[in-house]
Amino acid sequence: MRFVDIISKKRYGGALTEEEIIFFIKEYVKGNIPDYQVSALLMAIVFNGMNLEEISVLTREMMHSGDVIDLSAIKGIKVDKHSTGGVGDKTSLVLGPLVASFGVPVAKMSGRGLGHTGGTLDKLESIPSLTIELSGERFINQVNTVGCAIIGQTGNLVPADKKLYALRDVTATVESIPLIASSIMSKKLASGSDTILLDVKYGSGAFMKTLEQGRELARLMVNIGNSLGRDTRAILTNMDQPLGLAIGNNLEVKEAVVTLHGHGPHDFSELCKRAAAIMLEQAKVVKDQKDALGLIEEKIKSGEAFAKFREMVKAQGGDLSYIDDLTKFPVTKNIIPVLSTKEGYVEHIDSLAVGVGGMKLGAGRATVDDVLDMSAGIILNKKVGDFVKKGETLATLYSNKESKTNNEVLKEVHDAYLISKEKIGTPPIISDYIK
């Protein structure tokens, strides 16, 4: 089999066979196919796409290109959730303990942040002494005893995706739905859980800019997961404004704790409860999601969900005194209000601009080598639909940077707010559910 023939076939719109895809992934991981040839195939896929059978085989072969995590030693139906990334998305910090408080095991592997979207691991590491590096044995033991664990990816997980993603990044082939879907799903499937809930973001702060794009990606990933034997579902969530009020590592941890106590922002709380209801249905703990919502409220009100978060933090070495007294978290030397220059209703908040602003303050990484300021970030004082007076605070910057950077971010965050004279309704956080 010659790889040039595979390139040519896809270039002219042909569907690749199972054998051709197996050859492609195995030989590329071994280093027997050069990057310049794979780049040509990726561009052909961008232009001509792939059908579901091709994408499913590609995902399966990428998944098996390295280690596949064996979670069979964990009792019960293992559930997992994956977000495609957004500004202020600290959902896993609430969702993992909340679902685990029902006795459902949550064995989660998460990533770090890069660019305008934050990483779950970075947020957890803002809790002093907490480790996200657990051995496989300790990880499984923690899930069996505590019910949940959130750690970094371990071992040689999906090396094909690592190679392909790096190549896509420098060959303008990132924006291909078949390639995005196979990349995400190969990692999720290799992580070993029995069920997967996909939180597909769309809007200004997400990779998918429109609901239609998000829906196309979600449907494809659900089809891939189900075709490979996993109960896979998706929710489409709005990222036309940041999620919740907090952007930044320890700021988001504090918001997660407040939410577990039942006092979180409405949109963030709603997303966590709805996602938990779906995951409990997937785990067969409840018959339907309506039954689950009432039980979820009880778990939050009783303190069981927060208690489970404390257990997880303690098991991973975190200092519980910070969780029990949020005022112990360090605060930046500069706290700067962003004041409105208009009166009216907040019509839109550019999530990308706010996320980039948080990154510039030190809450995120522009490059993988950047060192995070765990206390830096932004708190939104006004959200879409809120009325604001001239001179009132739209948002608050938390920064240890010098005035030049602070002033630059202050202007960017101010300009991210679109103020309208017309009254604006509050947009729903979840726009669609696909199973």
What do these coordinates show?
The protein folds into three domains: 3-49, Up-down Bundle (Transferase, Pyrimidine Nucleoside Phosphorylase, Chain A, domain 3); 79-324, Pyrimidine Nucleoside Phosphorylase, Chain A, domain 2, CATH 3.40.1030; 331-420, Aldehyde Oxidoreductase, domain 3, CATH 3.90.1170.30. The chain is built from 17 helices and 13 strands. It has helices at 3-11, 18-30, 35-48, 52-63, 91-100, 120-125, 136-145, 159-170, 177-190, 211-227, 249-260, 266-282, 289-301, 304-315, 320-324, 351-361, 403-416, and strands spanning 79-83, 106-110, 148-152, 195-202, 231-238, 246-247, 334-339, 344-349, 377-380, 387-388, 393-399, 417-420, 430-434. The strands form four sheets. Strands 1-4-5-13 form a four-stranded mixed beta sheet, sandwiched between helices. Strands 6-9-11-7 form a four-stranded antiparallel beta sheet. Strands 10-8-12 form a three-stranded antiparallel beta sheet. Helix 10 links the parallel strand 4 (195-202) and strand 5. Helix 2 (18-30) runs parallel beside helix 4 (52-63) and helix 4 crosses helix 10. It is globular.
